[in-house]
Amino acid sequence: MPHTALNRVIVRMLFDPTLVEQVYTNPESVLEPLGIPQELQQSLLDTDQRAWGIDQDRRKRSLHSLMGEFPCSSTIVLAHTKKYARLEAFFSSSEFHQCVQHRKSMTSAFVAYLRGIEATGEISEPQFSDILTIEAQMAACRRDLSAPPPHLSPAQLCKAPGVAVQQVNAETINAINAVERYLHDLSMLPAIALCDDKPEFPALPPTTDAAQIFLLLRPRDGTIQLSPVSVVIHDAIQEAEVPLAPKDFIRKMEKRGLSKAHCQQLITTLKQEELLHQSPA
């Protein structure tokens, strides 16, 4: 639909002055590949070009929201690049434009953008990848809580909404805690950032070569909370990411070394802990 495509271009232009310049300089190169006809192109060009820059805080507000979901990852990027513009450039990136034009997830686009920064070598922090993985999973859990529930056949099992598991380096949680303490100190007196004796970004715990931990993410008290779990709980939640019959769940967990009786008790425990949901028989 050309009107839908045009509306999405308008959203992109509200965030990206470079795109505004491209559209007004050479509209055909931007709009024709999207199937936007000449008459709609002209209606867009009839807008005073200066109008697109009236709200100069739009990018800052939107970046504030994204940084609220990825506080530690974003802080590490700023600490290593020393440039706020490196994060704000997200709104001129291909990840952002593809996300808006094709109506994809903004948080997923931001994660891809941060991964791209990491790939350039600008971030030398070994903990960054796992920290971003955890924050991305937390964002996904928050959205899962408001998503339509999966269709379950009678008696089928599935992980509860907002529940997920991850395997990360054993020092990742300590690294997240260190960044959060740093942000807390700055938030107490934001103007302290102007001082010579301001809190310095901390050295994060080094990664360990072999040690990995299994983390459970679950909704509790209005937030997504993290807690370490056993490999059994990790594997059980992982197997239940898609709906399956109890017999299939038991068969999969038996392949992981559990007895049938243990599998049955595991189902009961996970249901009591509201980590696993079962539809009525």
Fold blueprint:
Blueprint: H1 2-15, H2 17-25, H3 27-31, H4 38-45, H5 58-69, H6 71-81, H7 84-88, H8 94-101, H9 106-119, H10 128-146, E1 157-159, E2 164-169, H11 172-188, E3 212-220, E4 223-229, H12 231-239, H13 246-255, H14 260-272, E5 276-278
Explain this structure.
With 281 residues, the protein is mainly alpha-helical. It is built from 14 helices and five strands. The strands form two sheets. Strands 2-3-4 form a three-stranded antiparallel beta sheet, with helices on both faces. A two-stranded antiparallel ribbon has the order 1-5. Strand 3 (212-220) and strand 4 form a beta hairpin. Helix 1 packs antiparallel against helix 8 (94-101), helix 6 (71-81) runs antiparallel to helix 10 and helix 6 packs across helix 11 (172-188). The radius of gyration is 23 Å and the shape is flat. The model has no long low-confidence stretch (mean pLDDT 95).
